[in-house]
Amino acid sequence: MSKMIFYPNTELGIDLKLITKEPGRMAVGEYLDGAITHDGEDHFTFVQNDQEKKLQKVVQRNPHVYEGTYINVNRKKDGTLYPTFNRPQFSEHFTFQDFCQGAADELRIISGKSDDR
What we know:
This protein has about 120 residues and is α+β, with helices and mostly antiparallel strands. It folds into 2 domains: about 40 residues, no CATH class; about 50 residues, no CATH class. It is about 20% helix and about 25% strand. The protein has 2 helices and 6 strands. It has a 3-stranded mixed sheet, with no helix packed on it. The longest helix has 16 residues. The chain is flat. It starts with 14 loop residues before the first strand and ends in a 6-residue tail after the last helix. This is YopX protein domain-containing protein.
């Protein structure tokens, strides 16, 4: 029998209640901003944020100019770029060394695309 591998925070076979601003079903690929609560055995509730209020008070700092598998690149207000590492999910098949090699490869690829050379 094969061993099934899931992401660390995967919940299988749950009941999910959605509380949204608009009635009806979500479109495939649609994103909602909000909070999810584990409120019972195998039961979760998602409550959508009020987008108008959020858009008025949220100011994105240092937006991503590149989102990769191993790293992201952000741009500061002064225009300079800086990389950040994504959080890896290590396993016996994906080690710290694998992550470092992948990040190095990704940095090499995107370093040639920078407009701030």
